Amino acid sequence: MQWPVASGGNGHFYQAFVAPSGITWQAAWDAATAMGGYLATPTNAAENDFIFGLVSTNNSYWFFNSGGSGIGPW
Would you state the pLDDT for residue 3? Predict the structure, then answer.
């Protein structure tokens, strides 16, 4: 999904992937670079909010601990 400049974005494209059994940072980085991309590194609150919006409503991206707190994604 692109974060359009017309919407205050940077024009970059973002794609979230589900790793059902978990994934290390290194494995996530390796997968991203193999596809010609890189792991997102938000540089401001607006970009972080945009990225969070891509994964916040889909529990498949999160691992929940016994207290119900979500952990993830990379």
Answer: 96
